[in-house]
């Protein structure tokens, strides 16, 4: 089945630790996105990538980093510089470019700080 | 600035009709999406409007007025499983990014 997978479902981070959230899609989509969702707030864009080996900062990129070495994969690293990382993280993808179409979301990763 | 407003919470009765409103102010407009999100799950696509008017899809309909910066999602014959958050999101034609409102949590009661 085609879709987007995220792992793990839950992730615990210790103080000063970097953690990486996985996002994989087999939809042959060019564009991929990372959002953060906090209670009572809308989704906020962290990073996005329109094509392999290229990515741009979203609205809240500080304390995060990404890579896009393969079309299928767009991992997000939450660094120790992100002082308030507890949130629900959603990865999404679509064809991007001139296509005005919905983004397809993965099941999400909930990150908790120990 | 960019701003999307939705009511925070709404309550409705099973079998009834509910209308969830969304107003937006964005730098350019290239379409508006509605998503449904159950607690702890991913948002799922409900509708897309780019031209003025009403789009109907089964029990769900979505309306857009670009001149008023206004949209609504209409849910008919409410079912208990419709209890969820409903997210309004606008594509900014200037940036190409999807901008989300904070979501409306709908509780359907028997």
Please tell me about this protein's structure.
The complex is a heterodimer of chains A (114) and B (110). Chain A is mainly β and 114 residues long. Chain A has no helices and 11 strands. In chain A, strands 2, 4, 5, 6, 9, 10 and 11 form a 7-stranded mixed beta sheet that branches. A 4-stranded antiparallel beta sheet of chain A has the order 1-3-8-7, with no helix packed on it. Chain A is globular, with a radius of gyration of 13 Å. Chain B is mainly β and 110 residues long. Chain B has strands at residues 3-5, 9-13, 18-25, 32-37, 44-49, 53-57, 60-65, 70-75, 84-91, 98-100, 104-109. In chain B, strands 2, 4, 5, 9, 10 and 11 form a 6-stranded mixed beta sheet that branches. A 5-stranded antiparallel beta sheet of chain B has the order 1-3-8-7-6, with no helix packed on it. In chain B, strand 6 (53-57) and strand 7 (60-65) form a beta hairpin. Chain B is globular, with a radius of gyration of 13 Å. The model of chain B has no long low-confidence stretch (mean pLDDT 94). The interface between A and B is medium-sized, with 22 and 22 residues.
**Major β-sheet annotation of chain B:** 6 strands, mixed
Low-confidence stretches of chain A: none
Number of strands of chain B: 11
Give the number of helices of chain B. 0
Number of distinct beta strands of chain A: 11
Helical amount of chain B: under 10%
| Average of the residue pLDDT scores of chain B | 94
Please compute the radius of gyration of chain B using only Cα atoms. Answer: 13 Å
Shape of chain B: globular
Order of helices and strands of chain A: EEEEEEEEEEE
Q: Tell me the structural class of chain A.
A: mainly beta
The H-and-E topology of chain B, N to C, reads as: EEEEEEEEEEE
Give Rg of chain A in angstroms. Answer: 13 Å
Which spans of chain B of ≥5 residues are poorly predicted at pLDDT below 50?
none
């Amino acid at each position: 089945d085609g879709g987007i997978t995220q792992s793990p479902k839950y992730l615990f981070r210790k103080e000063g630790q970097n953690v990486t959230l996985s996002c994989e899609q087999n939809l042959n989509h060019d564009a991929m996105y990372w959002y953060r969702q906090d209670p009572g707030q809308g989704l906020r864009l962290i990073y996005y990538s329109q094509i392999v080996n290229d990515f741009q900062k979203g609205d809240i990129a500080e304390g995060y980093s990404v890579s896009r070495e393969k079309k299928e994969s767009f991992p997000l690293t939450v660094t120790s510089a992100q002082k308030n990382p507890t949130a629900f993280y959603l990865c999404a993808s679509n064809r991007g470019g001139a296509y005005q179409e919905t983004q397809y979301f993965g099941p999400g990763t909930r990150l908790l700080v120990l | 600035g960019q701003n999307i407003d939705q009511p925070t919470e709404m309550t409705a009765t099973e079998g009834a009709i509910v209308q969830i409103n969304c107003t937006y102010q964005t730098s350019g407009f290239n379409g508006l999406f509605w998503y449904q999100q159950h607690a702890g799950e991913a948002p799922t696509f409900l509708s897309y409007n780019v031209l003025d008017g009403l789009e109907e899809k089964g029990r769900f309909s979505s309306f857009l007025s670009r001149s008023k910066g206004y949209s609504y999602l209409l849910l008919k014959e409410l079912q208990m499983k419709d209890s969820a958050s409903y997210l309004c999101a606008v594509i900014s034609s200037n940036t190409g990014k999807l901008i989300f409102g904070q979501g409306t949590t709908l509780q359907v009661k028997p």
